[in-house]
Task: structure prediction
Amino acid sequence: MNWLLVVAGAVVGAPLRFLTDRFVQSRHHTVFPWGTFTANVAGCLVLGLVTGAVTAGAASSHALLLLGTGLCGALTTYSTFSYETLRMAEGGARGQAVANVVASVTGGLGAVFIGAALARALWG
Amino acid sequence: MPTGASAPGVEERVGAPGDAAVPARRQPPPWHGQGAVIAAVSAGGGIGAAARYAASLIWPQATDGFPWTTLAVNVIGCALMGALMVLVTERGPAHRLARPFLGTGVLGGFTTFSTYALDVRHLLELPRAAPGLACLVATPLAALAAVWCASALTRRLLPPGRWQAQRAEGAPRPGERGHRAGEKEHRPGEKEPRAAEGQGCR
Result:
């Protein structure tokens, strides 16, 4: 059952990241990987919210497996983020590579905190 | 992505002569013509996430300890991504679904940014600032080192073969229409190829 929940979340989360990336990247013409950044920050926000809901007793541990481990785990990614950062650095865009790391780390961490605060406001 | 539509972002003037011309963006939806790629990403994502969940069961993390399992999963996934991207973009030809399935899907589903951020927040709130900050900084550094080392090692172990010589003689150049995913060379600094894409044509 737990395995099914994780896989069910991931088979939605991974293509959602792919489509988010395509949608965002088609709307700007810079080398900065805004698509992956968007997916990562959005996934962190949702995970913070879901974790907060579980802590408050408003959601079950099954919801955490489906939406947290599965959906958000696959919606967000470290491998693509790292590869894109490396590509920018190799291509001479070192400033943008550093900016991507700093923005992703601070944005992701901030989003988790905001999601948890939202959960606290909604469910105490 | 041969869609028949104009390139994304190209504004076209629509309306009959004499009408007030309205600039319009003709952009197909992001899933347009991507059925097989989306299915590959989805299947790969399920496999990758299941492997990550297995790792969390085999090596459970102490609630107040350093999140070694998440770190290991992310670093291993980044190393595999570094090797994979060299294989499919520089040492091909690869099947057009190899990158979306293995890269965007399996490795994208295996590694996770959200759990990393949640682990850091958890440590900072305990409060265990030292391991929290260590995790915050060490994870991206280790991940970048892993993807860089794996790329360099793969290039060294697998020198360019006959395929690249054939490419140099007259295959489509990056950016040309008609190339297929997994058959692209890439030049540093280009916007393409990107690991998060199945096709790379925009």
Remarks:
- Confidence is low (pLDDT under 50) at residues 1-22, 170-193, 196-202 of chain B.
- Chain B touches chain A through 66 residues (CB under 8 Å).
